[in-house]
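Write out the 3D structure for:
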Amino acid sequence: METETAAALKLVRDRLLRARKVVAFSGAGISEESGIPTFRGSGGLWNSHPIEEVATPQAFQRNPKLVWDFYLERRRDALRAKPNPAHVAIAGWQERFSFCGVVTQNVDGLHRAAGSRNIQELHGNLWQSRCTQCERVSEDRALEARDLAPCTDCGGLMRPHIVWFGESLDPEVLATSARWMRDADMVFVIGTSGVVEPAASLVRDAKRCAVFTVELNLSKTALTPVVDVSLFGKCGVIFSRADGSGLLEQAPNRRRTKLSRWLRD
């Protein structure tokens, strides 16, 4: 097993040396290593409430305060968390390649906190609110319970800027994410089970476009048969070990001073 792991790391390292466009596709596993509870922890319950009572449009219509209390607690969890070595390593790729993008299913903001700039948040952002009437999105750093806030533009009720069960992903975010992953030289699939759609289909689409795909996870997932290489273990540990063996240090700096045409198009 150790020999297989060493061979897999060498293969990834060799491909990374030739890469120009790299995308990290991340899921809950990368943030769990920073101390953020998984969304469906505790048997799918939060304070004895099923997740469906706090993470659907219908739940917000029935009891918006309860839903806000849930997301305020998630904000407090996220605030206590810090980017781990995987977040930091991904952010560092920006200085080494023509383009480094992050497509994430997470809403906690840890990729941004680590310094990543090109980020597509498939499921929204915990630190933003959106008006239920005019759709205006604004930053919202509140942490404690409060009266329900009206939109400053139209007076509509503000909701968490999160994609809930039964809602569609933002089509622009989805389209940009798909393009980044199809056009990349390498895609790292980090800490995701590969069962949440349509996010998981982005990895399959990239593989169909002959993109070299690398999975990092604690164990096998639904995407393991699809990717080119799987590295099993904690994401932060794998990145740290990879750094020490030269995975990133040997990579030439291919970053351009101007935004790449690929990103502009």
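The two ends are 43 Å apart (CA to CA).
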